[in-house]
Design brief:
The protein is mainly alpha-helical. It is built from six helices and two strands; from the N terminus they run αααββααα.
């Protein structure tokens, strides 16, 4: 992970850019550096689409990508990626465990919902589930 080069105000990313950030985060769990081609394959998109999205994420201070280099998350990118993943996992497990939704459908719905739910609502939902001793949540 690299330190942010500049202080950026946290702007709301589009769902598409959040999906790119989430994918970079997930791919960087195994290798710190992410190649554009791996990101394109992972998301099922073209390399020009990846380059466009990464340029935007770089302007937002969330990734660093030297010319023709690999993609690295900044500290802020790592933190935002972690939040997006946490929202997805919380929503998916809630739908599966508490609402008896099929896992595939829960995953698809959680992917859509993670972009809409605020951090405040996410933490409130987590607290309610913890207080009700939901078995899938770690304290």
């Amino acid at each position: 992970m690299y330190q942010n080069m500049h202080c950026h105000s946290r702007k709301k990313l589009s769902p598409s850019k959040e999906n790119y950030l989430k994918a970079i985060y997930k791919l960087s769990e195994t290798e710190q550096a992410v190649r554009s081609i791996d990101l394109a394959v992972y998301l099922g998109v073209s390399k020009p689409s990846v380059n466009n999205a990464v340029t935007i994420l770089q302007k937002e201070g969330l990734v660093i990508k030297p010319l023709r280099g690999e993609i690295y998350l900044t500290d802020e990118g790592y933190n935002q990626g972690k939040i997006i993943i946490s929202k997805f996992q919380l929503i998916k497990q809630f739908l599966v465990t508490c609402c008896n939704v099929n896992e595939r459908i829960a995953s698809e719905d959680a992917c859509k919902m993670e972009h809409l739910i605020s951090d405040e609502t996410t933490f409130a939902l987590k607290n309610i589930l913890i207080n009700n001793k939901a078995p899938f949540l770690k304290q």
